[in-house]
TrEMBL record:
Main location: membrane
Stored Gene3D superfamilies: MFS general substrate transporter like domains
Compartment(s): Cell membrane
Organism name: Chryseosolibacter histidini
Alphabetical list of Pfam families matching this protein: Sugar_tr
Topology versus the membrane: Multi-pass membrane protein
Protein name per Swiss-Prot or TrEMBL: Sugar porter family MFS transporter
NCBIfam families: SP (TIGR00879)
Length: 442
């Protein structure tokens, strides 16, 4: 019980990066009704304002992949926390539109770093039998961050300089994360890979207890000895290229499935259904609450049902819900609660399946020595897809109109279902070393 409590403790601290990640990507949506008229933004400019964060995310993941393999997981988490704190304040009180964009890009570097470091760290610190549940803590804190941002946006909607305070509010949890991250140990797998075996044993004793430490060390050492060097060129090798492409595919489809269009631009979606600003922001709180509840459900299912079943069920159901959202817009079915129900059902499905399981799989499927670089590349492509969605959605929904936009997202989810059916692996209950042996031989 003590050991499990310690794992939960350090996983929660590491996953605090996920909370800030969720907060930063969601807080912008509440500023839309205020920042667009303040700067007189066109739809394309609004898309650029929202998506500029993800330019930083791309930079952050590319830099962090190399840095974390060289300097360790913990120091980079500390740097990410510092970036979160500083950028939150300077985004809120930027003196011009260009400075706002600049600080959103800087904030994105912290978001990108945390998005890959938190699940990577938790996966490497957790025993195989509870690893999926522990990595899902990261997704739980992401959705808590999203809900927190929505709630703060709603409370600040009537305040003077409302959109500035919305951005600035992120500095409080960021500072807390910065101080707490000093309490966690370094990843034992990284320590072994650098020759710090005794330090790794100390960490593993706290995590797993003393009985399995030597077995765990031997398993990690075997994985490290049999691995290739962590360079980009090493990603193009027999048994490695396939799994890298698979990781990229899962990362990209998680972003273009349509869920982030709802998270980022719910005010636009509900404005087209005739809701006023307060109603739009309240709908976001409902979205955030549903997202949180069903993420808790996912944490109970990911190690019980397995990764592949959840991904297949999620992609197919999401296609159905998005199609029904498109039907609501096509036939103007805005009386009653049909639109709200279908949107919330879509978010519930996403929160139970694609949202957490994608991160679990990305943290599991890559070989140890190249894991940092491979996770970096996959997460970078995730942010490229996220940038494209965030930039393009305001323009897309005006160009195609709402029904066609949601029918398009429905088709994307259906396509993903068939890709998963053919190629997705099952990693449930396997150690990282066991799975990497299987995938390389395959």
């Amino acid at each position: 019980m003590r050991t499990n409590s310690y794992i939960i403790f350090i996983s929660l601290i590491a996953a605090f990066g996920g909370l800030l990640f969720g907060f930063d990507i969601a807080v912008f949506s509440g500023t839309i009704p205020f920042i667009q008229p303040y700067y007189e933004l066109t739809e394309a400019q609004l898309g650029w304002t929202g998506s500029s964060l993800y330019i930083g995310c791309i930079i952050g993941t590319l830099f962090t992949g190399y840095a974390t393999d060289r300097f360790g997981r913990k120091p980079l988490l500390i740097v990410a926390a510092g970036i979160f704190t500083i950028s939150s304040v300077l985004m809120g009180w930027a003196g011009s539109y260009n400075m706002l964009i600049f600080w959103r890009i800087i904030a994105g570097i912290g978001v990108g770093a945390a998005s890959m470091l938190s699940p990577l760290y938790i996966a490497e610190i957790s025993p195989a039998n509870i690893r999926g549940r522990m990595v899902s803590i990261n997704q739980l804190t992401i959705v808590i961050g999203i809900l927190l941002a929505y709630f703060i946006n709603y409370l600040l909607a009537d305040a003077e300089n409302n959109w500035r305070w919305m951005f600035t509010s992120g500095a409080i949890p960021s500072a807390l994360f910065f101080f707490c991250i000093f309490l966690v140990p370094e990843s034992p797998r990284w320590l072994v890979s650098k020759g710090y075996v005794e330090k790794a044993k100390e960490v593993l004793k706290k995590v797993n207890g003393g009985s399995r430490v030597n077995d765990d060390i031997r398993s990690i050492q075997a994985g490290v000895r049999g691995e290739v060097r962590g360079k980009l060129s090493d990603l193009i090798q027999h048994g490695v290229t396939f799994v890298v492409l698979l990781g990229i595919t899962m990362a990209v489809f998680q972003q273009i499935s349509g869920a982030n269009a709802v998270f980022f631009y719910a005010p636009i979606i509900f404005e087209k259904a005739g809701m006023d600003v307060k109603d739009q922001l309240f709908q976001q709180i409902m979205i955030g609450a549903i997202n949180l509840v069903f993420t808790l459900v996912a944490m109970q299912l990911v190690d019980r049902l397995g990764r592949k079943k959840l991904m297949l069920g999620g992609s197919s159901l999401m296609a159905v819900w998005l199609f029904l959202v498109g039907i609501c817009y096509y036939f103007n079915l805005f009386e009653g609660y049909w639109l709200t129900f279908f949107v919330l059902a879509f978010i519930a499905t996403y929160a139970t399946t694609l949202a957490p399981v994608t991160w679990v799989l990305i943290s599991e499927i890559f070989p140890t020595r190249i894991r940092g670089v491979a996770v970096s590349v996959s997460t970078c492509m995730l942010w490229v897809a996220c940038f494209a969605l965030a930039y393009g959605f305001p323009v897309l929904i005006e160009w195609l109109n709402a029904p066609q936009t949601f029918f398009l997202f429905s088709g994307i989810c259906l396509l993903y279902f068939f890709i998963l059916l053919r190629f997705a692996p099952e990693t449930k209950g396997k150690t990282l070393e066991q799975f990497e042996t299987e995938i390389i031989r395959h």
